[in-house]
Amino acid sequence: MRESIGASFVLYAIVIFVSIFCLFFIGGLSYTKAFKIKNRIIDIIEENECYDGGGCSSKEQINQALKEAGYLVKKGPADCGNIRNKKGATVLTQGSNGYRYCVYKVDTKTGSYYGAVAFMYFQIPVIHANLEFPVYGETKVIREY
C-alpha cells in the first residue's frame, strides 16, 4: 500500500510539472506573437514617418499586416487610456476593423515619436476566462520639417 501512495504522488507531481511547462510555453508563444505585431506596427509608422492624415497610409498598411499575421479580431475598442499615461501623449487610435491595438503620439522639442501597444491574449476555456496583456513599444523620434 505504501508503494501505491508514493507512485500516485509522483504521478501528480509529473502532471503538475507538465501543466506548468505547457502554460509557460503557450505564454511564450503568445508574447512572441504580440511582440512581432507591435514591432510590425512600429516599422510601418517609421517607414511612412506618420500615422494618419495628410496622405499617410499607415493605418491601412497596419490593418493589412494584422490580417496577414492572423491577429485576433475582438469586438469593441481597446482600453488605451490606462495603458500608457505619458505627459503630452495623445491617443490616435484604439484599433480599427476589429483589431485591438493602440497608437500614441508624443510631441517633443526635436519632433514627435509614436508609441504602439499590441495585446497578447489568453483564452482559458475551462473557466471561460479571456485575458489580455499589453505589449508596448516606441518609434524613434520623427523630425517634422
Regarding quaternary structure, how should these chains be classified?
single chain
- What is the rounded Rg? 21 Å
Largest sheet: 4 strands, antiparallel
Helical fraction = 40-55%
What series of H and E elements makes up the topology?
HHEEEE
* Mean pLDDT score: 80
- Rounded to the nearest angstrom, the distance between the terminal CA atoms is 82 Å
**Secondary structural class:** alpha+beta
Strand line-up of the largest beta sheet = 1-2-3-4
Determine the number of helices (DSSP H or I, runs of at least 4 residues).
2
The outline comes out as elongated
Low-confidence parts, pLDDT < 50 over ≥5 residues? none
Number of strands: 4
User: How much strand?
Assistant: 15-25%
Describe this structure in words.
This protein has 145 residues and is α+β, with helices and mostly antiparallel strands. The protein contains two helices and four strands. It has helices at 2-48, 58-69, and strands spanning 89-93, 101-107, 112-124, 129-138. The chain has a four-stranded antiparallel beta sheet with strand order 1-2-3-4. The chain is elongated, with a radius of gyration of 21 Å. The protein starts with a helix and ends in a 7-residue tail after the last strand. The model has no long low-confidence stretch (mean pLDDT 80).
